[in-house]
Amino acid sequence: MTLQFLVDGLMAGALIGLGAIGVTLTYSILGFANFAHGEFITFGAYATLLIASAIGAFVAGSDQSIGPLSITWAVIAASVAAIGVTGAMALALDFVLFRRLRGKSAAISLVLASFGASMAIRASLEFAFTSRPTYFARDLQIATPIGLGLKVTPDQIALLIATAVVLMATHALMTRTQVGRAMRAVAENPSLARVAGVNVDETIRVVWLLGAALACVSGVMLGLLVQIRPLMGFDLLLPLFAAAILGGIGSVPGAFLGALIIGLGEAATVQFAGAQWRAAVAFVVLIAVLIVRPSGLFGRSG
Hints:
Blueprint (H helix, E strand, L loop, with lengths): L3 H27 L6 H22 L14 H29 L5 H23 L14 E4 L2 E3 L1 H23 L1 H11 L1 H6 L4 H26 L6 H4 L1 H11 L4 H21 L5 H15 L10
Antiparallel strand pairs: 1-2
Helix pairs in contact: 1-5, 1-6, 1-8, 1-10, 1-11, 2-3, 2-4, 2-8, 3-4, 3-8, 5-6, 5-8, 6-8, 10-11, 10-12, 11-12
């Protein structure tokens, strides 16, 4: 029996976790399930691809791989720029659509609006880039044995390190900054937070920016490890929500832990039961959590 599924599950959990943090923040602070979040992941990946292509065309040597990685300097620079582009798209979507419904309509109206926005973004990306998958790089990497039958590639190691850095930065933002305290206050009671002097509108914009940034990073990771295609974010939607609910809505560490559980569960299912059962894992976990512990691992009951 090989334990390689542990590495695969860890990588899957890492990219699901970054997206799930955005889902849990949007739900806890804005009060609705944003079905367009999966498209933020896809949008970020395509934005990075376009910007990296432009950088590679105008900056000599930027399309060269970094050491043993398949990642280029152009992709790294493009991902930073794409975070800003994806954040701007999320803010524009909120300004045009969600802001007009927030506080004036039932939550279901926001959910339906997000569902419509997701279809529009997905269709636009498919029209612009076609349904044919594309890649940041086509270099094949040789996995290095690390013991116990496990093998990892340089890209996987680099992306796990990057994920850890992003996760620690997000946790520090949420727990050690005024912005993070404002976000927690708005999640608790928006009206009371406004009375206490919190700029609720600005806090909401920060939530959109943070969620979009994490989604963009998740999309870049998925593009580097697998491929880029218009349905990549949509396929992650159920695992994202399952991870957020499993961890407890509003809990950043909980969302990431839930994502690791989902990722490891999917990888184990592929190895021991077959790839055709992979999509069922998130659904089974989601139903089980809603029945047994609706508040999730780190959520508050009641």
